[in-house]
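Final report, section 2: Outcomes. Of the targets proposed, MD-2-related lipid-recognition domain-containing protein is the one most frequently requested by collaborating groups, and we therefore present its record in full.
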Amino acid sequence: MLKFLLSIILISLLLNNSIGNEENQIWKSCGTSNDILKINSIIVKPTPPIKGKLFKIDINGTFNKDVEGGEAKIIAKFNNLMTLYNQTNDLCSSTSKAIIGNCPFKKGPYLHSANFTIPTSAPTGYYSGNILLTDNFNNSITCINVGFNLE
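The predicted structure is given below as tokens.
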């Protein structure tokens, strides 16, 4: 279950805009207009994620400067009560690369696709998280709040 949750949250690291319609919105930006990554489009299927089904995300964005490294501060909770994950990770770690793409990131267009199968054993409930990405100089790359019900 933790691998599933971290996969969804790490994919979320690059999202900078709200997506989906009001009742299906699972991502919300907590960043500013000064963030390094600007998202042009995001396609997420299905929204919200479904157990036993493929979760796919396609991201199209633009980095306004090179990012050589940094940190990913991630907090994940289950049913707003149990903290599942609360750590700061290297932005360019092998785990992050597998999910968000090759680091370092160069100024210019950014395209990335990722697919995950959500385990049927994942507990039903509300998953939430906060992700803050910063570069080596502590500049905000993006900040995201995540929340969805898994049934």
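The domain at 2-150 is CATH 2.70.220.10 (Ganglioside M2 Activator Protein; Chain: A,).
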